[in-house]
Each structure stands twice: as C-alpha cells, then as structure tokens.
Specification:
Blueprint (H helix, E strand, L loop, with lengths): L1 H12 L4 H4 L2 H27 L8 E6 L10 E6 L8 E5 L2 E4 L1 E7 L5 E8 L8 E8 L12 E3 L4 E3 L3 E5 L5 E6 L4 E4 L6 E7 L2 E4 L1 E7 L7 E10 L2 E10 L5 E10 L23 E6 L7 E6 L2 E5 L3 E3 L3 E5 L3 E7 L4 E5 L3 E7 L12 E14 L7 H9 L4 E4 L9 E2 L4 E3 L3 E9 L2 E8 L9 E3 L8 E2 L5 E3 L6
Antiparallel strand pairs: 1-7, 1-28, 2-6, 3-4, 3-7, 5-6, 7-29, 8-9, 9-10, 10-11, 11-12, 13-14, 13-19, 15-16, 16-17, 17-18, 18-27, 19-26, 20-21, 20-23, 22-25, 23-24, 24-27, 25-26, 30-33, 31-32, 34-35
C-alpha cells in the first residue's frame, strides 16, 4: 500500500501515466500549482536581474538563454508611447545594435506610434542574461523582404524551406521541400490529419483552415484549422518559419466521454490501452523507404530501433539513411511506425482499462513539432534542435533600471565541443554543480574547457565523489 502511494506520487511528479493510473483528480489539483510555482521562480529571478542590468531608451528587455550553446531566437516586446516619441525602433546592447521590426501597431494622427508589438533577433551567448534597450530610430528603416508567401486561392504556403498545400477540408495535401522534393504525400488523399477509433468506428478529422499573417513584418505564419473528428471539436494550430525548418503544431480537443481506442467490452481489459495505432493520433504519410528505422532518445542514450513503437524523451525520429523525420515533443513521448507507410503520434485514449474506465471530459491540449531532415541522423543535431523547441527563451520587460550590473551576465563560461550539452546546474553542499552529457558518437571523446578565473573547479562523478581537483578542462 505504501509503495502504491509512493509510486503514484513519483508518477505525478514526472507528469507520467496520469490518466491510466487514475491520478486525474490529483493532477488537476497539484500540477497547476507546480507550473505556477515554477513560473514564479523564473519570473522572480528574471525581475531580480532585469531591474539591475544596464538599460536605456524607451524600454529594456532582459533575455535569458537557457541553453548551453549560442542561440538566436526572435524576441517580442510590447511598447506604449507618447505622441511623437517614435515611428521606428532599433535595439542596442553594449556596442551591438539589432534591427527591430513592428509586427502590429496603432498610430497617432501625426503618424507616430501609440503602441506596438516589436520583434528583434539577438545573438545570445550560452547560459547568459542580456539586457536590450529599445530606442527610437530615425530615419525610417525598411522592413526586410517577406520570405513567406500565401496563395489563398490554391491554399499553398511557401517558405524558404517548404511548399505546403492545405486541404480545403482540413489537413495537408502535401509537403515539399523548397526544391520540390516530396516529404509528406498520400497520392490524391490527405497526407496529414487526425485519426482514431471513436465509439467503435475509425474516424478521420475534417475541418477548415484560417490563415493569420501580420500586416507588418513577421518571420512566421500561423495556420489554424477548426473542425471535428466524429463529434469531438478541435482546434489545430501550425506555425511555419522563414529562418528555421521546424514546423510547430498544437491541437486541443474538447472531449465529452467518448470511447477512444481499440473496442473492448472487458471492463478490466489490459490489452487495448497498448494498441496505440487505434488511439486518437496525428497521422502523416511520408516518403521514406520501407526499410526505415526508428530513432529513440532515451535517458543518457540515443539509439536506432526496429520496434514499431518508438519512445523518446524529447524527440523520436524515423530515417532511411538519406532522409528522415524527427518529432519533437512537449509531453507526447512516443510515435508509431505504422504499416501503411505512415508515422503517427498517439494523443488520447479513453476506454475500459485494467485499473478502471478512464473517460476524458473537457479540453485537452497537445504540442509537438515536425522536423524533416536529410542525411545521417547522427549529423542532424536533433538533440539540440529538440531542446531549442522544448526550452523557450524567457524574457522580461522593464522601463527603468538601477544600472548596477552590466548589460550581459554569463555565470558559467565554458567552451563545449559540439556534441556536449549542460543538463543540470544547481547549488549543492556550498558549491555549484554542473552536469554535462556527451550525446553524440561521431567522436570517442569530447572536451569541456572552462573560461573562468578565481574559481576552483573539481571533477566529480554522479554520486559527488571527487575524481580530479582543480581542473580547467575535462
């Protein structure tokens, strides 16, 4: 009994098997508190530094790069202004300047801005805090060429990476590379959609697309499909970018107790919950060879698998050696290599189960990303790309600061070889512990060099036992 209770607590803490084990009441009570507490820590930490870091101009934006490698994300800020203050902007940090682009705005009668959403793309050092000052800019700067085009009549979106054709009844008709190579295709039928066995019958999603593109410059486009799968309403959002080949996806379903999954009348059924290809899932038809193999991202190991069920922490992939498709996840830690030349992501199950019926009611949301790639998967750097998707760049906006700190802080300055990442950084026993992981196998060894002064660095094992004192390189 004690182990059962402890086991459930461990699963809840990991956000794992919530529905199947019967932890939905505890999850509804405790997980929002967990998210709130985590976000509060981030907010307080960001505000502590932001209010002290150097800044000037109309507004300061402090950004934290949570990754142990350089990163250049788009950062958005909202600014409200007095009449005549600015018509255009530039962003500065130290001796660096970055162009700023207005996505949406309202104007005064003289053409100056009343308020605006502004975006800029800074260069962020690994594990760094950087403050950026948004300044009024004159003369007027021209926005760059829009690299995303939408053919409304034919429902085709063109980016520097893809040509995507939408189906007029929801889903994708095809996805091609910008050079014309087919990536997703299902002859004359839809190649990407939602499917599942609902109340005993196989059902396919059907909806209608809406396209959201700003009047100003915006380096992405948002596609939204509203529809139904059987009698379950859903909203499916897709984001395409001009500067990266990742395709972000988010879907929410509004359930009302439907039976989802392999049909069974056995109220203690232990088998149907593991037939993943009958659950409600996102399904896509690819162009990979039938000999393609799965890639799974396991704890401290990444390996190929011939299993049709591919499990992974932050990502899974399917590859034939020449081309591949990776799936990045924010909770859906698995994919299926189905028999009909398709790859799917199981999302929802609601049926009889050995531990009791598990019906779903209300709205449930799921997030994942698609990342087609070419060549050897070991050289596609899927681990870093998946972590960039999973760990967004937090930022906070301020108007006046004390200017007691520089505009850039980098608490841990280390040079890592390309297949080494920092996986943990935390205080312990009066010191700061940093844990590194070598995820690649292209070289037998990789190094970490620390660029620090007046700091004692010791190499330890995972149990904290001293291996080497006073190191500068490992």
């Amino acid at each position: 009994m004690i182990w059962t209770k402890l086991g459930k607590i461990c699963l809840l803490a990991q956000h794992h098997d919530i529905q199947i084990v019967g932890l939905i009441p505890e999850a509804r009570k405790l997980l929002p508190r967990s998210y709130e507490t985590s976000n509060l820590v981030i907010e307080k930490s960001m505000n502590f530094f932001a209010n002290q870091m150097k800044g000037e101009g109309l507004k300061q934006v402090t950004v934290f790069n949570p990754l142990s490698w350089e990163h250049s994300p788009w950062v958005m800020a909202y600014i409200s202004l007095h009449k005549g203050e600015a018509k255009n902007f530039i962003v500065r940090s130290g001796n660096k300047s970055y162009p700023a682009y207005v996505v949406n705005s309202n104007e005064y009668s003289d053409g100056s801005l009343l308020d605006a959403f502004v975006i800029f793309k800074p260069d962020l050092k690994p594990l760094s805090l950087t403050s950026f000052s948004i300044m009024a800019a004159e003369p007027e700067m021209n926005n760059p060429v829009d690299n995303i085009q939408y053919d409304e009549e034919n429902l085709i979106i063109r980016t520097p990476f893809y040509n995507l054709k939408l189906n007029e009844k929801g889903g994708f008709d095809y996805l091609k590379s910008s050079k014309g190579q087919l990536i997703f295709n299902n002859n004359q039928a839809k190649c990407a959609f939602f499917e599942g066995t609902i109340d005993g019958n196989v059902q396919v999603s059907e909806g209608r697309w809406s396209i959201y593109k700003s009047k100003g410059y915006m380096p992405w486009i948002k596609l939204v499909e509203h529809g139904y799968i059987d009698d379950i309403p859903y909203t499916y959002e897709v984001m395409l970018y001009e500067d990266k080949p990742v395709i972000d996806c988010k879907v929410s379903f509004d359930f009302n107790g439907q039976m989802i999954g392999h049909p069974t009348e056995d109220k203690r059924d232990w088998h149907s919950g593991f037939i993943h290809e009958e659950k409600l899932r996102f399904k896509l038809f690819h162009q990979l060879e039938k000999t393609s193999v799965g890639i799974r991202d396991l704890p401290f190991a990444i390996s190929e698998t011939s299993d049709k069920y591919i499990e992974g922490n932050y990502w899974t992939a399917l590859t034939d050696g020449d081309n591949g498709i990776a799936i990045f996840n924010k909770g859906n830690m698995g994919s299926i290599k189905e028999d009909e030349q398709c790859l799917s992501i199981p999302l929802a199950f609601s049926h009889y189960y050995v531990w009791g019926i598990r019906p779903l009611y209300g709205k449930y949301s799921y997030e994942f990303a698609l990342y087609p790639f070419q060549g050897d998967w070991k050289q596609a750097d899927l681990t870093k790309r998946s972590l960039e998707y999973a760990f967004q760049t937090p930022s906070v906006q301020t108007i006046k600061t004390s200017n007691t700190m520089d505009c850039e802080l980098q608490p841990l300055n280390a040079s890592l070889e390309n297949d080494v990442i920092l996986t943990a950084l935390y205080p312990n026993k009066g010191g700061i512990w940093a844990r590194y992981f070598k995820y690649g196998e292209l070289t037998k060894s990789s190094s970490v060099k620390f660029n620090t002064q007046n700091t004692v660095l010791n190499e330890i094992d995972l149990d904290g036992n001293l291996l080497r004192p006073n190191v500068k390189k490992i």
